[in-house]
């Protein structure tokens, strides 16, 4: 009869060829619409500098330990998130019900990608809108009309959603080294290159001094308790922890690679890209007299208005929305992988079949979001439209619960020897610091985020 350890050793069906491959993959997973779309407007709504300072503290002292916990669990289990949590739960605590943490993670990835793909489709559409000169000279009414026409037309949004999902499935079908790693080796550097081009433009054509001051000059009078929790929540969600993607990628990390060094590199890359996105956006916002606290519409409505008024704005608009599409694509690839790995291992399916079935199911589910902005926009219950409810359930409930369960399992259930083996050479003082955070700091922080998200704190 095979033991859990035997199952782990015999189950691996792919590995990253290098530490760089893993760093690019997980950075690609973490870097997405949350960095380039959400972070700038959340920072804008919360006063800029003081919020950014709190956000950085949360990323490195809370987000990093949670990501390390998820990677070490993934590498120790060497299987899909469901099987990993079942095997390690049995090995560390003699129970199998921890598998439900993996189930919730896979289900959360399904839900998030179903609407993420639709929003990513909007970014593809805006590449063509910008290239066709639709933003050039357009006033606020015309910009709003472009956005409303897009999101309220199911055939149009459905087409872009379909195109995005096809592109995602094509990469996942090719596997770890030839699909996932090869894609991120191109997409992540391309994303950074585009970001630097836009940063150069922002420095020349935008009000860079005001943007820099807004982002990095702390104004603690603007900081509230809600802002601190918002910073904590953004730090948690931007790293893609709690949905099984990081755990699935960790399963492919070679044993000789340092988890501490690789996860630190990922967190630094993710944070730098969020900061670059803000440095691209805020100077343009200030140069055009716009409000940095204009909320979620900052990217799809406020920025196109600015692009339409500036010299060469059509080219900049194309580059910006191409950047957003790349960021969304790398995240979507990681969201599919846990479910694909699950069906390959439990059903014996080929990667092609698993990716096609998973992608097709997510694609079909995505039409609930497509219709929520069109014919079903008046169909509301609980938190709002169908999209609002899927978004709330996945981001505000399932993700924090998943992240909490992962860090509690690593910090309280797994034996010291088990976690120390995986985190070596982070043993000694570094290991003790991680263990303290995983046992006490991170769980309390995630509980606060969860309570705040559901309106109980």
Tell me what the structure shows.
The chain is mainly alpha-helical and 457 residues long. It has 19 helices and no strands. It has helices spanning 4-11, 19-30, 33-45, 49-77, 81-93, 99-131, 140-151, 154-173, 176-205, 208-216, 225-238, 245-250, 259-287, 297-309, 313-347, 351-372, 386-413, 416-423, 429-453. Helix 3 (33-45) packs antiparallel against helix 11.
Counted by DSSP, the helix tally is: 19
| The CATH homology group name | Amino acid/polyamine transporter I
Overall number of structural domains: 1
Q: Helix proportion of residues, in percent?
A: over 70%
Key features of this structure:
single chain, 457 residues, mainly alpha, Amino acid/polyamine transporter I, 79% helix, disordered N terminus
Which SSEs are present, and which pair or pack?
Blueprint: H1 4-11, H2 19-30, H3 33-45, H4 49-77, H5 81-93, H6 99-131, H7 140-151, H8 154-173, H9 176-205, H10 208-216, H11 225-238, H12 245-250, H13 259-287, H14 297-309, H15 313-347, H16 351-372, H17 386-413, H18 416-423, H19 429-453
């Amino acid at each position: 009869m095979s033991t859990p350890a035997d199952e782990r050793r015999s189950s691996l069906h792919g590995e990253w060829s290098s530490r760089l491959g893993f760093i690019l993959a997980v950075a690609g997973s973490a870097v997405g619409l949350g960095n380039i779309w959400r972070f700038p407007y959340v920072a804008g709504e919360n006063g800029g500098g003081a919020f950014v300072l709190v956000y950085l503290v949360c990323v490195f002292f809370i987000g990093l330990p949670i990501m390390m916990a998820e990677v070490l669990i993934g590498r120790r289990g060497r299987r899909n998130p469901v099987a990993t949590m079942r095997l390690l739960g049995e090995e560390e605590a003699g129970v199998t019900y921890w598998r439900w943490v993996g189930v919730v993670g896979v289900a959360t990835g399904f839900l998030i990608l179903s609407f993420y793909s639709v929003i990513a489709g909007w970014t593809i559409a805006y590449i063509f809108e910008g290239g066709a000169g639709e933003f050039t000279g357009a006033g606020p009414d015309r910009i709003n009309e472009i956005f409303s026409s897009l999101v309220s037309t199911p055939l149009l949004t459905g087409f872009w959603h379909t195109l995005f999902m096809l592109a995602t499935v094509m990469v996942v079908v090719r596997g770890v080294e030839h699909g996932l790693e090869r894609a991120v080796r191109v997409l992540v550097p391309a994303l950074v290159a585009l970001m630097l081009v836009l940063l150069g433009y922002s420095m020349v054509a935008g009000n860079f001094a005001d943007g820099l001051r807004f982002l990095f000059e702390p104004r603690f009078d603007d900081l509230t308790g809600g802002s601190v929790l918002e910073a904590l929540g953004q730090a948690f969600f931007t790293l893609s922890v709690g949905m099984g993607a990081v755990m699935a990628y960790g399963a492919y990390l070679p044993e000789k690679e340092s988890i501490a060094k690789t996860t630190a590199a990922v967190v630094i890359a993710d944070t730098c890209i969020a900061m670059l996105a803000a440095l691209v956006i805020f100077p343009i916002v200030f140069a055009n007299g716009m409000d940095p606290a204009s909320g979620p519409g900052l990217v799809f409505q406020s920025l196109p208005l600015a692009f339409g008024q500036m010299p060469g704005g059509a080219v900049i608009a194309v580059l910006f929305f191409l950047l957003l599409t790349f960021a969304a694509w790398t995240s979507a690839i990681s969201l599919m992988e846990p479910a694909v790995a699950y069906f390959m291992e439990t059903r014996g399916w080929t990667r092609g079949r698993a990716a096609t079935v998973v992608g097709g199911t997510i694609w079909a589910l995505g039409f609930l979001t497509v219709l929520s902005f069109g014919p079903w926009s008046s169909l509301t219950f609980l938190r709002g439209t169908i999209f609002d409810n899927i978004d709330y359930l996945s981001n505000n409930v399932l993700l924090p619960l998943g992240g909490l369960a992962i860090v509690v399992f690593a910090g309280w259930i797994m034996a010291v020897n088990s976690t120390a083996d995986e985190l070596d050479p982070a043993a000694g003082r570094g290991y003790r610091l991680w263990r303290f955070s995983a046992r006490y700091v991170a769980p309390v922080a995630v509980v606060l985020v969860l309570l705040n998200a559901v309106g109980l704190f």
